[in-house]
Amino acid sequence: MGVVAAENAAGRMRRRICPPARLAPLLWVGPAILLIMLVVVWPVIIMIRTAFQHISPDGFILGWAGFRNFTYLWQEPDLPGILIRTVIWVVSIVACTMLISLVLAQLFNQRFPGRRVARWALIAPWAASVMMTALVFRWALDANNGVINIFLHDLGLLKHFNTNASDWLGSPSSAFAWMIVVAIFVSIPFSTYALLAGLQSIPSDVYEAAKVDGAGHWRTYRAITLPMLRPAFIVALLINVINVFNSFPIIWEMTRGGPGHRTSTTTTFMYQLKQSYIGESAAMSVINFGMVVLIVLLYLRVTLWGQEEAR
Amino acid sequence: MEGVVPASPTSLPRALERRRPARRLRNRTLIFAGLAYLTGIFFLLPYIEMIISALRPQNQLLDRDYLPRRFAWHNFIDIWSTGFGNNLRISLEVAAGATILVLLVAVPAAYYTARQRFPGRNLFLLLVLVTQMFQPTAMLVGIYREFLSFDLLDSVFALILVNAGFNMAFAVWILSAYVSAIPAELEEAAFIDGTSRIGAMLRITLPLALPGIVTALIFTFISAWNEFIVALTLTTAPQTEPLTVTLNSYIGEYRVDWSHLFAGSVIAIIPVIILFALIEGKVVSGLTAGAIK
């Protein structure tokens, strides 16, 4: 026994001494840090540098630009509309998504036969590429033979095909409204699943206590479910804000941000600028990135605060 | 009515509880089930329309009806003669490459952070959490200029790197949660037998964490497979594009090749939905792990 213990201790010593102990963690997490540096941190640095460079459309660096890229961006006549649209985009999509998901999470949390299958159907828009989903909607909104128009025609809501009324993507306001609908459609599955996970983490004895106290359904929901769902709700909300703010494929595939820039958000505008004015595009990116950092800080505040409370 | 036959003090409340809601429950269950099925079908509609449109014969593509008079499979056959197979292969390479890279990088990091307390551990976890919140879209200009300067445009390797980098966080969360749940005592027994830490990880812990590994693997594969904007930015030629960019190029200035667009989309989407269904229950915990844990 004593020999084994001694050997064991020696083995441990060897393990501890062999690689310099302080560097051991680097061996394990180093590759991950390296990857993050290469793909996330370094691009941010280059992006910020580009925002202050003067770069020709064909990619030659012509020197430093100071804040000129930002002033050009500021002078873009379309920018005010784009900023307002971005706010509408994020607020309306996230608000509708969260409200609808609250209802759907409640529904899919009930017990009924085939619940698993019904939940599976819900994941399709989440798993499928958003860009392909956006394209089907573009096709379904076709002024001549889109299936949504056929359906509206059958309901008597649409009189004639190939008119302004059926050309949803032809006018900026109806196009933007439909793109918001598509964005809500693809955001709901994740949000519903996140809220479902939140619902399932509420211990059932709390509900039993409420039942004993004679609380009705609505009262139970407001007094127990909603407050206890708060952490999951806030996390899902903030993840949605970031995703929706960065959303590119829906607008790109349905209108390319047009006509003009009249259905663009700051994200698609950044991409359009990138084609010819990369410095200005970088300036737009820096502003977008600043927004994302703000949201992430908020997220960290909320979540780290949540962890401390849990301890 | 209630309490007429008190069988025993313990079984009485249980019997009542079971009986009373039973009748009301049946109606409610039916309503809930009906609503849930309808919701499920509603969320499948765009993909059903996608399949129907891909199966429309060319001369019925513009018809105003819900279903064509007959289904035609030729779009699914013709598409392979357009070079689609090559783009599919690139998508596979990118997704598989990113998945392998994520596993190589995330497994040791997740294992070590779950098992050891070391200086900088919290900082590392914070870094991972922050990367998860960032999306390549927000720093696209930087990514573009970085890989331009490395002369890595039109390269599968560049797409593998970016996809791996932005999906690693998910794998780290899922895996470290699984490893934390496996008792460290199992490994200590192996240490006594002289196994190294790497040996213990490979032979004892990782097999037990297999469900987590599979989840991370499938999730990374799907997001790399679906990735669009980085691929759109980092590729410039049809021969080097992954599938999403190719499908995007079916949208011409004046004409859209809807038939092939949807045939290609169906081919791209169906395997992904099936894979996702396998890990459906675990994805949320990986996406929100940093927060809800």
Descriptive labels:
heterodimer; A: 311 residues; mainly alpha; MetI-like fold; two-stranded antiparallel sheet; flat; B: 293 residues; globular
Word description of this protein:
The complex is a heterodimer of chains A (311) and B (293). Chain A is an all-alpha fold and 311 residues long. Chain A has a domain at 79-263: MetI-like fold, CATH 1.10.3720.10. Chain A has 14 helices and 2 strands, in the order ααββαααααααααααα. Chain A has helices spanning 2-17, 24-51, 68-75, 79-108, 115-122, 124-127, 130-140, 147-155, 172-200, 204-212, 217-245, 249-254, 266-276, 278-310; strands at 53-55, 61-64. Chain A has a two-stranded antiparallel ribbon. Chain A is flat. With 293 residues, chain B is mostly helical. Chain B has 2 domains: 11-54; 81-292, Orthogonal Bundle (MetI-like fold), CATH 1.10.3720. Mean pLDDT of chain B is 86; it is low at 1-18. The chains are: A mainly alpha (311), B mainly alpha (293). Chains A and B meet through helix 1, helix 2, helix 4, helix 5 and helix 6 of A and helix 1, helix 3, helix 4, helix 5 and helix 6 of B.
Query: By helix and strand content of chain A, what is the structural category?
Result: mainly alpha
The CATH topology of one domain in chain A is MetI-like fold
Quaternary arrangement of the chains shown?
heterodimer
In total, the number of strands of chain A is: 2
- N-to-C SSE string of chain A, H for helix and E for strand: HHEEHHHHHHHHHHHH
Highest-level CATH class of one domain in chain A? Mainly Alpha
Main sheet summary of chain A: 2 strands, antiparallel
What is the mean pLDDT of chain A?
A: 87
Structural class of chain B: mainly alpha
Radius of gyration of chain A: 26 Å
Helix content range of the residues of chain A, please?
over 70%
Give the spatial strand order of the biggest sheet of chain A: 1-2
> What's the CATH architecture of one domain in chain A?
Orthogonal Bundle
Give the CA-CA distance, first to last residue of chain B. 48 Å
Gyration radius from CA atoms of chain B, angstroms: 26 Å
**Number of helices, where a helix is a run of at least 4 consecutive DSSP H or I residues of chain A:** 14
In the CATH scheme, the class of the largest domain in chain B would be: Mainly Alpha
Poorly predicted sequence stretches spanning 5 or more consecutive residues of chain B: 1-18
Largest β sheet strand count, sense and barrel closure of chain B: none
- From the spread of the alpha carbons, the general shape of chain A counts as flat
Number of helices of chain B: 12
